[in-house]
């Protein structure tokens, strides 16, 4: 009987529990490149949850979710840095978004920045992202004072809610969602849903983020995605933008740019939490 219970417990650990949401992949261990390939090809991959190292999770145009590499996580150290980010990071083109930092270009907010990594190879993603700049994208400036205030309030609220209630994705907001990017034996996870939650978990010291696939999107994007794209003229720029996500030199420039925005907060963002926790 003891042996049967032990085997059953091991089986449940392997499969994960479907009672508490998506089943756990790889027993909850953080993913390696080989795991990503297996997961993205798995028949039941859409039903899985998995853990991604924070420094492999990406926000917007290449910003990692490590504390020193993300405008959202930097906010928790210096509230004013987020406003400075939107003032100084105003790329006019998608290539500038990945390669130019710190020089306001007075971008037209009515013109969308379309990332071919998602929009050119997947029509649903294209429709979803069309016109984001017109609606004030959180990924670049310029933004209005109202939008900035909303972002600050949401980031503060989400972190306080997780501190108070713990991480409960089934109750508050759902899991972090996204798409894998792969290139030359490396992988990243582009976060498309739960971006504020991801920043809060990183700031609270989580070394890996629990995530699921973004419904309606491809599970993985690689160089081959653009060779198979409907718009073949998008192949070369698409592959170029994909390479920017993995470029370590550009990663270093992003770090230095964010460090230049840092000013210690006068007031801690850990203010009295809202009564609701729906944004967690």
What is the topology?
Layout: H1 2-15, E1 23-24, H2 33-41, E2 48-53, E3 57-59, E4 63-64, H3 71-75, H4 80-88, H5 94-99, H6 123-129, H7 145-165, E5 176-183, E6 186-193, H8 195-203, E7 208-213, E8 220-221, H9 223-227, H10 235-246, H11 248-261
Parallel strand pairs: 1-2, 3-6, 5-7, 5-8
Antiparallel strand pairs: 2-7, 3-4, 5-6
Q: Can you offer a commentary on this structure?
A:
With 280 residues, the protein is an alpha/beta fold. The protein is 40% helix and 13% strand. The C terminus is likely disordered.
Q: What labels describe this entry?
A:
280 residues, alpha/beta, 8-stranded mixed beta sheet, 11 helices, 8 strands, 13% strand, disordered C terminus
Give a brief outline of the structure:
Helix content is 40%, strand content 13%. By secondary structure, it is an alpha/beta fold. Residues 8-19, 125-134, 230-234 and 265-280 have low confidence and may be disordered.
Q: Biggest sheet, open or closed, and with what strands and sense?
A: 8 strands, mixed
Would you list the SSEs in sequence order as H and E?
A: HEHEEEHHHHHEEHEEHHH
What is the 3D form? Answer: globular
- Average predicted local confidence, pLDDT: 80
**Separation of the first and last Cα atoms:** 42 Å
Label the structural class: alpha/beta
Question: Care to count the β-strands?
Answer: 8
User: How much of the residues is beta strand, in percent?
Assistant: 5-15%
DSSP summary: helix tally: 11
Q: Gyration radius, to the nearest Å?
A: 19 Å
What helical percentage do the residues reach? Answer: 25-40%
**Uncertain runs:** 8-19, 125-134, 230-234, 265-280
């Amino acid at each position: 009987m003891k042996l049967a219970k032990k085997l059953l417990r091991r089986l449940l650990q392997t499969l994960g529990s479907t009672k508490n949401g998506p089943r756990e992949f790889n027993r909850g261990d953080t993913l390696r490149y080989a795991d990503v390939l297996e997961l993205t090809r798995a028949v039941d991959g859409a039903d899985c949850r998995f853990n991604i190292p924070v420094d492999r999770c990406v926000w917007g145009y290449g910003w990692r979710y490590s504390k020193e590499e993300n405008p959202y996580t930097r906010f928790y150290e210096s509230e004013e840095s987020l406003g400075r980010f939107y003032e100084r990071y105003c790329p006019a083109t998608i290539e500038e978004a990945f390669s130019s930092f710190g020089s306001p270009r007075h971008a037209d907010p009515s013109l969308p920045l379309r990332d071919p990594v998602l929009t050119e190879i997947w029509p649903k993603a294209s429709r979803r992202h069309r016109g984001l700049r017109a609606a004030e994208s959180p990924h670049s400036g310029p933004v209005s004072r109202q939008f900035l205030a909303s972002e600050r309030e949401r980031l503060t609220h989400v972190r306080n809610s997780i501190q108070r209630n713990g991480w409960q994705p089934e109750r508050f907001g759902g899991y972090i969602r996204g798409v894998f990017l792969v290139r030359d034996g490396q992988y990243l996870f582009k976060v498309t849903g739960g971006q504020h939650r991801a920043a809060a978990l990183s700031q609270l010291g989580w070394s890996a983020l629990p995530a699921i696939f973004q419904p309606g999107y491809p599970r993985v994007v690689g160089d081959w995605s653009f060779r198979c794209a409907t718009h073949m003229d998008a192949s070369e720029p698409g592959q170029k933008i994909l390479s920017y996500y993995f470029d370590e030199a550009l990663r270093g420039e992003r770090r230095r740019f964010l460090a230049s925005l840092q000013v210690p907060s006068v007031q801690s963002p850990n203010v009295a939490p809202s009564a609701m926790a729906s944004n967690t």
